[in-house]
Amino acid sequence: MTVLRNATLADGRIADVSIAGGRIGAVTDPAPGPGTDLTGYVLLPSFVEPHAHLDKALTASTVDNPTGDLLGAIRAMHAAADRFTKDDIRRRADRAVRVMLAHGTTAIRTHVNVGSTMGMRALEALSEVRADWAGLVDLQLVALVGNPLGGEAGANLRDALRSGADIAGGCPHLDPEPDKAVAICLDAAGEAGTPIDLHTDETLDPAKLTLATLADLVSRTGFEHGATASHCVSLGVQPPDEQRRVSELVSAAGVAVVALPQTNLFLQGRDHPVGTPRGLTAVHALRRAGALVAAGGDNLRDPFHPVGRGDPLEVAALMVIAGHLGAADAVESVTAAPRAALGLPAVAVEPGAPADLVALRGEDLIAALGAADQDRLVWRGGRLVATTTVTRTLAAPPARSHP
Q1: CA atoms within a 13 Å half-sphere pointing along the CA-CB vector of 381
Q2: What pLDDT, in 10s, does the model give residues 365-384?
Q3: N or C: which end of the chain has fewer CB within 10 A?
Q4: What CA–CA distance (Å, rounded) separates 7 from 15?
Q5: CATH number belonging to the domain at 2-46+348-388, selected among 3.40.50.720, 3.80.30.20, 1.10.10.10, 2.30.40.10
Q6: Contact 320, 15 (CB under 8 A)
Q7: Exposure string (b/e) for 120-146, b if CB count within 10 Å is 16 or more?
Q8: Where are the domains of the chain?
Q9: Which residues pair with 378 in a beta bridge?
């Protein structure tokens, strides 16, 4: 049995947490005894990344996005695709997983480009990475296909779902027939018996609102494998009544929404030099309607977002700054909410829960979130799987005389 002593919990309590058989055995008042001393650390459920692009990760230094917007990033990656071998993709993805695990992430859903110039080599590479990290970091692979979905891309999606992809993906809002594209993706997921996770309305154009189409189709077809809509930026620029209407549809359909503040703040709004929109979905309207809202990092230093750290605390901080969430809700958006969106077992610091945990330096939750100290410990199934220790040495301020 392992005992984590003197840990600060999210609600401010100080407790000893015992772990046995990969689960939390007890949460008790602090007492003397052997164990890992977590004095000065906040203990939380480990983080979950609900939306990554591991096949693109760590390419910002070699793939430039001169326009800085979404279409510029897409064009840049298409132009560079032939340079990315299976071994290169696997190496970069493995490095990205290591970065995320060190920060406290033990589950990742990553979108993987398939078809077109990429073929299936990125999916093959990520399938190997998934196997390599099994038991330490859970990887879910989303087949991300191009457009139009009514042509070869739709066939590529079905091929990928037969070739190791776990989830059906796509970008219907970029399709010549957006609503039809949503239906094609949903049909492919239904045939394969897999969840669906679509890049949805990644635009500030209010005329693009395929989120409503997805929610309506999920409800009308009784789709039961799990549906997620990522980005949903255009919902944030709808009038309040429309935000409420669509949010209620989303909630009723059980569609999870993943906000992606880092990438969308970088890509969106470049053609709005005055009063630049935030490029974020309607977080509060969705939450008021009862929809599940998670948050993710999206891109890790690639043409879509060149300066990401792979740290969920950066995402949570942006949900406070740009999304106006409180600290506790922001942390929940990178812990409990994405677990639910990805269909993973719930984790809480309470008896019986899986011991998937992260300890963050800080006297309380707000301090830990605000400082985002790299000094962390990470457990997966009760096993300590990552430790980062930071040493700081500061010069003393010069002595001065006081009057």
Answers
A1: 7
A2: 999 999 999 999 999 999 99
A3: C
A4: 5
A5: 2.30.40.10
A6: no
A7: bbbbbbbbbbbeebeeebbbbbbbbbb
A8: 2-46+348-388, 47-341
A9: 358, 386
Q: Model pTM?
A: 0.96
Residue 93 is predicted with a pLDDT of 98
User: Is the distance from CB of 308 to CB of 53 less than 8 angstroms?
Assistant: no
Region 219-246: mean pLDDT is: 97
Residue 386: its H or E element? strand 383-388
Domains 2-46+348-388 and 47-341 share a fold: no
CA distance readout (Å), 70 to 76, 258, 300: 10, 18, 15
Helical (H) or strand (E) element with 258:
strand 256-259
Question: Are 157 and 145 spatial neighbours (Cβ–Cβ below 8 Å)?
Answer: yes
Q: What angle do CA 244, 249, 255 make, to 5 degrees?
A: 115
From CA 26, how far away is CA 19, in angstroms rounded? 7
170, 181 contact by CB (below 8 A): yes
> What span, in angstroms and rounded, lies between the C-alpha atoms of 64 and 229?
28
Q: How far is CA 128 from CA 87, 145, 263, 355, in A?
A: 10, 20, 27, 26
Q: What is the pLDDT of residue 47?
A: 98
- E-strand ranges in 46-145 read 47-52, 105-113, 138-144
Residue corresponding to tokens 């899986």: 354
CA contacts within 13 A on the Cβ side of 144:
25
- Residues serving a catalytic function are 202
Alpha-carbon distance 250 to 233, whole Å? 14
pLDDT, tens digit, 9 for 90 and up, residues 254-283: 999 999 999 999 999 998 889 898 899 999
> Cα separation of 317 and 329, whole Å?
11
Sequence-distant (6+) residues with CB within 8 A of 157 are 114, 115, 143, 145, 149, 168, 169, 170, 184, 185, 188
- Answer yes or no: is pLDDT of 249 > 90: yes
Domain 47-341 has CATH 3.20.20.140: yes
Residues 349-378 as b or e (16 or more Cβ within 10 Å = b): beeebbbbbbbbbbeebebbbeebbebbbb
pLDDT tens profile 3-26:
999 999 999 999 999 999 999 999
- Is the bond preceding residue 206 a cis peptide, omega within 30 degrees? no
363 in helix, strand or coil? coil
169, 199 Cβ separation under 8 angstroms: yes
